[in-house]
Write a structure and sequence with these properties.
Number of domains: 1
CATH class: Alpha Beta
Strand content: 25-35%
Number of helices: 3
Largest sheet: 6 strands, mixed
CATH topology: Translation Initiation Factor IF3
Distance between the termini: 72 Å
Mean pLDDT: 89
Radius of gyration: 19 Å
Oligomer: single chain
Low-confidence stretches: 6-21
CATH architecture: 2-Layer Sandwich
Helix content: 25-40%
Length: 144
């Protein structure tokens, strides 16, 4: 009987520890630096421009409120490394969708974690937990 109680206590204890450790922490990273790195490394081809909300871009809006929500394995990786990787996935999706719909820019980009908008003219937000990192963005497709 004591062994069963010990095993139950251990399982419950580890389960509680996992829940606490997996809570997401929000990180803000420089958006333009990440975009520039992705273009320089050939991840993005540079034909689609990206503008955070509050930065001037102009053009004709083709579609408003496009959302991308990407996740990546963040286990044993720094927040900066995993967040940069997952931002690239989000931007690749935006780039492909923009091209397919005749746009050459995504403007008015905001972080959109759990459908909560966070606007910044400099940074994007990334949620990083123990095992997963995620970036959610919302923006408008535009023809410049």
């Amino acid at each position: 009987m004591k062994i069963k109680q010990f095993v139950l206590a251990a399982v419950l204890g580890f389960g509680g520890m996992t829940t606490v450790q997996s809570a997401d922490q929000m990180h803000d990273f420089d958006f333009q630096d990440a975009v520039n790195r992705a273009v320089a490394e050939g991840v993005l081809d540079g034909s689609v421009k990206f503008y955070l909300a509050g930065t001037k871009s102009g053009g004709k809006v083709i579609e408003r409120g496009l959302v991308t929500n990407k996740k990546t394995n963040g286990f044993a990786k720094s927040a900066e490394s995993s967040c940069d990787h997952v931002l690239r996935s989000a931007l690749i999706q935006f780039e492909r969708t923009a091209k397919a719909r005749g746009a050459n820019a995504v403007t008015n980009i905001v972080s959109y974690y759990k459908a909560n908008e966070t606007k910044s003219t400099k940074t994007y937000q990334c949620a990083k937990g123990t095992a997963v990192a995620g970036v959610a963005l919302k923006g408008d497709l535009v023809k410049l």
